[in-house]
Amino acid sequence: MNAEGVVEVLAVVAGLALVLVSASDAVSTLVTTRRRPGRFWPTPVFYRQTWRAWLAVGRRAAPELREGFLGSYGPLSLLGLLAFWVLLLVVGWGAVWWGLRSRVSGVDDYIDAVYFAGVGFLTVGFGDILPTGDLARLLVLVEAFMGLVTMALVIGYLPTLYGAYSRREVQLLALDDLTDEATTPVGFLEASHAGGGVEAVAAAFADWERWCDEVYDSHSAYPMLALFRSRQPGQHWLTGLAVVMDAAAICVATIDGRRNGPAARLLRRGTMLVKHLRGLPTVGLEDAEVADSFGDEQRFRAGYQRLAALGLPLHPHEQAWSDLRRLRAGYLPQLVAATRLLQVPLEFRHHTARLDITRSG
Fold this sequence. Notes:
It is built from 14 helices and 2 strands; from the N terminus they run ααααβαβααααααααα. By secondary structure, the protein is mostly helical. The radius of gyration is 27 Å and the shape is elongated.
């Protein structure tokens, strides 16, 4: 075999390798919903590089435009990911057809080969370039089938993705402590208690435990969902998670007899979800320094007194504060790191219209 023949064989092998890697990445994302362990598969590379660029532009945007700009990344990234897969597949098939150009009439250089690959992948079929021989004709059918399957998978993938997104957001609308200020963990506990005492608090924790399970399952299967921001201003699933997890931690650490109940189960589920944030499809996530949050004993004391006013049996203040610091150390550093990575404001606001029903006429 001469040098030109060796180059053609290498082009075919390299092209098929790129096609197989790209197709495998698409299938693992859209069908098997299992993340590849490596950082250099197409989907992680795409999200890592595009999010860095998008975030760099967003940080330079005016404050009133920044949230909208960052919020548009999630939906647009899906279109970009599809285009990235198509590009890799067409480039790979182009290398294959360039290596087999002796069996395709009309392919003289790599640009011709890429054009023929694109026409075949998108099933356009102009007919100006034709394969000759059984092998080339069979490969054209394989490429066309791959193109149809890729488009069909993406079309079927979108309803599932947006269904999971909607379920996540609907639960966030229920995170309302009945004030016009930012929702706090103690405010969440007080509002839940006002709706039916300790049973209502337990029911609220049970609802949020199911929400954590659903979010963990959907965001494990579709990691890009983590980059979808809320449609409601002032709300984000990470800050909502922080509120309910802090409420559960306060309940477990402070209220007597709550170490094995719904609050403890929610804290366990939420911690599992937070640990999963290390798999965000952007960049490596390191734990944040949150020493100031751990040291805010005065704020905890005020919350402790508000819970005591509800008539709840509480552990001694020093014991409760020590247990709360220990519990928060298990999830807060990773959670704060994720909010910084995604540029999420560290507060949750519910913008329900206030209705005064105390007056008539």
